[in-house]
DNA sequence: ACAAAAGTGTTGTAATTACACCCATGT
DNA sequence: ACATGGGTGTAATTACAACACTTTTGT
């Protein structure tokens, strides 16, 4: 309990975001290009320092709003994990809180970003190329997102205010990377109370029968869950095994 | 990207632990009594500062070993959430990483603790009385534990090396706070591949038929999950709604 | 008419629930 | 003998996977 000198090293805290969306039938993540050393010119997850009188969650919401140009509170944002291995940032002792954010397919090419460049990239393409330990962070956030689709109504966060069941199904297929039976999916989501609220409108696309439009319902959890055929749920563990 | 003065406030990081166990048919948590201001004399979750060249996960494992007197790597330990609201600690800017740890019913009354006192307390009794924001932290960890019992084999972490199915069932009943059908539970856990490994021994208690002994199997996930009748799964969200 | 996507029906199977019932031990 | 907890059998119910099939639009 007595504070010995090395017992309370001061450090800096950042909030890094994995902002995911579905664009062009792919799962994409918002990246910024680093303008300074280290990793100058490399792509990284957007993020920034937590300010002196700021809650980490608030810092994440602020970053999210800055990067997307949208009101961050309108988007899904959740804490995922802390990454604090010494040496993970060459500039010194920096611990980061990783956040998962979900955005609908934004029309804008991301304005107002404070980095030298920002763009959406397919996660498959981004994984393995990122600066710092951001590949690990992205992988962890991806796993969280895949899991959340099973047990929660998170998938609707990928959709605009009004969406069709086909669009929602595409979210599942893209995030999980596997096909989902259209017929069973339709029944499942329409019969889960509170998942979808039907609207009195239809959307007619280029081809095919017009689809009914829905908006998000009040439910946040899915019971029974929407299960993937191949199950590989793993509880995040901090044990040093 | 340019580092303005207030953009990288330095702060101190702690790791706080909710160490849970089942004792006397109750879910209990390990608490320490604070020896210094603030909250002197109040009970709090064990924890401590993350050292200068230490990973937060390693700090948690170290604290766990100190408090329980056991090798921390033998116990289940997982990151749960970050609590960093400014003002949560009157001593200054302190952000904490909350960890959930699970221990079997330890025979020792916790030796070697560095706080002025340490003891197991029923969580029902502890909730609402703790120092700092530890009530919130404990509640969050509890919810995580309840959830993990559904989808993972975490319950075995509450048991000693060898245990009976009845003991395992008690864990579920105590953590969930609801009765579990003995017959169906037995079938469920014995038919889930990799959950339990039968031992060639039986334990005969004071009364009743001797029960077969088992040890943990290699499985970490439960499929299909062990579902509670009343479902209230809620994904932790950091959105400032 | 045809292609394409939306949406409904049906059937076999897996899993859960809610029981009744038997087994092995100490007193 | 009987109480107590361990363990098995069975039937009704629910949910799901895998299909065939119909509907509604644009070309």
TrEMBL record, chains A, B:
One of the record's GO molecular function terms: hydrolase activity
Top-rank taxon: Bacteria
Residues in Nudix hydrolase domain copies: 10-145
Claim: Iron is one of the keywords in the record: no
SUPFAM superfamilies reported in the protein's UniProt record: Nudix (SSF55811), Winged helix' DNA-binding domain (SSF46785)
Record-annotated membrane-spanning stretches: none
Keyword terms: Hydrolase
InterPro entries: Nudix_hydrolase (IPR020476), NUDIX_hydrolase-like_dom_sf (IPR015797), NUDIX_hydrolase_CS (IPR020084), NUDIX_hydrolase_dom (IPR000086), WH-like_DNA-bd_sf (IPR036388), WH_DNA-bd_sf (IPR036390), WHD_NrtR (IPR054105)
Database matches in CDD domains: NUDIX_NadM_like
Family as reported in the entry's similarity comment: Belongs to the Nudix hydrolase family.
This protein's name: NUDIX hydrolase
